């Protein structure tokens, strides 16, 4: 897995959802300027499984979105946090985008002068899980895991590649072990 981030505060307790790639829903608790908690619904071994709640056990505002799984999947996660990492107050906004729509933003809807923006793009269904930190009152940071790209995932059609081109027709590259 490739670990990206986290963004937000360096403080708090670490949480991990590594290898949980089939997201089927999100549950967000938030205030007008803070993400209080995140929880996820995953599809694993033929069943829907809820993750632990990451962050506060309390909720000022709550929103639950269950995706149209398996046809709906995450395409990006964006948001903002206040501070420079060491003096951060944690996540103040988050938005989840899927191939069928968007959910959020939750938390602060307009960035402040000290807001730092983040945007994780999840193309080609490479999402491999979440990670971050939390305090008893909020989600302090969030990051993602990406599945490694293996050659069996690459399909060269029409001889073209992003950023370059090849001569020839369609071919599938096989995974070499």
| Secondary-structure arrangement, i.e. CATH architecture of the largest domain | Aligned Prism
* Overall helicity: under 10%
Low-confidence region ranges: 158-177
- Written as H for each helix and E for each strand, in order along the chain, the element string is EEEEEEEEEEEEEEEEE
**Hey, roughly how much beta strand do the residues contain?**
over 45%
Radius of gyration computed on alpha carbons? 18 Å
Counting H and I runs of at least 4 residues, what is the number of helices?
A: 0
Classification by helices and strands: mainly beta
- For CATH, the homologous superfamily of the largest domain is named as Jacalin-like lectin domain
Main sheet characteristics: 5 strands, antiparallel
Organism: Solanum verrucosum
InterPro entries: Jacalin-like_lectin_dom (IPR001229), Jacalin-like_lectin_dom_sf (IPR036404)
Family: Belongs to the jacalin lectin family.
Protein name: Jacalin-type lectin domain-containing protein
């Amino acid at each position: 897995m490739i670990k990206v981030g986290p963004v937000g505060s360096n403080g708090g307790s670490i949480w991990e959802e590594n290898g949980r790639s089939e997201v089927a829903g999100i549950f967000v608790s938030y205030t007008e300027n803070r993400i209080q908690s995140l929880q996820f619904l995953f599809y694993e071994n033929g069943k829907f499984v809820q993750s632990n709640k990451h962050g506060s056990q309390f909720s000022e505002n709550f929103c639950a979105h269950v995706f149209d799984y398996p046809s709906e999947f995450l395409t990006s996660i964006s948001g903002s946090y206040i501070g420079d990492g060491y003096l951060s107050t944690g996540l103040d906004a988050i938005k989840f985008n899927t191939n069928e729509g968007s959910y959020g933003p939750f938390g602060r809807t307009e960035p402040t002068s000290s807001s730092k923006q983040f945007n994780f793009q999840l193309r080609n269904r490479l999402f491999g899980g979440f990670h971050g930190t939390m305090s008893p009152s909020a989600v302090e940071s969030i990051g993602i895991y990406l599945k490694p790209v293996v050659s069996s995932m690459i399909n060269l059609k029409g001889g073209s590649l992003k950023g370059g081109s090849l001569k020839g027709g369609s071919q599938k590259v096989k995974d070499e072990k």
